[in-house]
Design brief:
There is one protein chain. A hairpin with a 4-residue loop joins β10 and β11. The protein has nine helices and eleven strands. About 3% of the residues have low confidence. The strands form two sheets. Strands 1, 2, 3, 4, 6, 8, 10 and 11 form an eight-stranded mixed β-sheet that branches. It has a three-stranded mixed β-sheet with strand order 5-9-7. 37% of the residues are buried. With 344 residues, the protein is α/β, with parallel strands linked by helices. The protein is globular and about 70 Å long. The site of 2-(butanoylamino)-2-deoxy-beta-D-glucopyranose (BGN) has 9 residues, from α7 and α8.
Length: 344
């Protein structure tokens, strides 16, 4: 009699051998299809074993430890509050006051440090914004506890384009970078669309050796990358890398292309893009109609074809803006900017 464990081992060994032979005989597509099916089913089974939690669950256990900060231990590599898939749901008509009540440890300007250990990660979140109040409230409701689960030191900056010119996401992100770095020596910057809600807290908001594309599986795109070099939605860079590629281009007015441009800048600088596993990098996109002042940019194809010639002269080193106000609100730092008629 063969022990059941051993029989299973032999069975899988045989399957693998058969697939290797088939692959060798030219059945590449069929073999990769079977392998893909197997890995997705294994990953989805492990995912269903993990229970889907409320993003606030367990956070009441985070309490200040000792009275002197010097005595604090370093936070563990893996936070004990990280658990896996999270529920994405919001109370009806959330107000900012409700979110403040639910996040008592968040300080003015949307700053947070774990109260009982020294954080290993120091991350600024930059959100480009115009006229999406409900989405901003929903994102703040979810993102604050999401980041606290990860025991990160963080702050949230909302960069608000306050004029009637066409929306300019790239330029807003450059402003966010500049203003956030004036405030603190952040090690990592997350550039975060207002309508993307992370669905799994194992998607840790820290930086890696290469620029990171976090939103790899968005429900709107059936939880798959729309194309291989897609770098939109939520992405992160270390400051040194952001400056090396000269940040985002400032001259993409309207929808589309600025994310492809920054991806090109990364490749032109001989870096590659890191991505979390697709089961971690899952996002729900909040529904919205057409944004006024953000129609598709007809020049984006031509601009993109010239990135290799222009990236050195267009970005952080020619950024012009007027900062109308910088306001520390209880849940975020609000940077209001005006670009004027500046077509850099
Ligand atoms: C692409 C857009 C991106 C956008 C994604 C996903 C362009 C440039 C022309 C090739 N790029 O097509 O900006 O993030 O779709 O919506 O339009």
């Amino acid at each position: 009699m063969v022990a059941p464990g051993r029989a299973l081992f032999i069975f899988f060994g045989l399957q693998l051998a058969i697939m290797a032979v088939l692959y060798h005989q030219g059945y590449h597509h069929q073999v990769s299809y079977v392998l893909k099916m197997l890995t997705t089913s294994v990953l989805s089974t492990t995912d269903t074993i993990l229970t889907v939690k409320d993003v606030y669950s367990g956070l009441d256990q985070i309490q200040p430890l000792s009275p002197t900060k010097e005595d604090l231990p370093t936070c563990p590599k893996t936070s004990p509050f990280v658990s896996g898939p999270l529920k994405v749901s919001f109370p009806l008509d959330i107000t900012l006051d409700d979110i403040v009540q639910k996040n008592p440890l968040v300080q003015l300007g949307g700053h947070y440090q774990p109260p009982n250990c020294w954080a290993l990660h120091h991350t600024a979140i930059i959100i480009p914004y115009r006229a999406r109040r409900r989405h901003l409230h929903q994102l703040l409701y979810h993102l604050h506890p999401f980041l606290q689960r990860q025991q990160i030191h963080y702050a949230i900056y909302v960069v608000h384009q306050m004029d009637n010119y066409t929306f300019n996401r790239g330029k807003l992100l450059n402003v966010g970078f500049k203003e956030a770095m004036k405030e603190n020596n952040w090690q990592c910057l997350y550039f975060h669309d207002v309508d993307l809600i992370p669905e799994d807290d194992r998607n840790i908001y820290d930086c890696s050796a290469f620029p990171m594309h976090a939103s790899v599986a968005i429900d709107k795109f059936q939880y798959e990358l729309p194309y291989q070099t897609y770098f939109g939605g939520v992405m992160a860079l270390q400051p040194i890398h952001y400056l090396k590629i000269n940040g985002f281009p400032n001259n993409y007015w309207g929808w589309g292309g600025e994310d492809d441009d920054i991806a090109s800048r990364i490749f032109l600088n001989k870096m590659s893009i890191s991505r979390p596993p697709a089961v971690f990098g899952r996002y729900h996109m909040l529904k919205h109609g057409h944004d006024r002042g953000n129609k598709a940019n007809p020049n984006r194809f031509q601009l993109l074809s010239r990135t290799h010639l222009r990236w050195r002269y267009n970005g952080m080193n020619n950024l012009l803006y007027s900062l109308l106000s910088k306001e520390q609100t209880p849940l975020y730092t609000n940077l209001t900017v005006h670009f004027g008629i500046d077509y850099h």
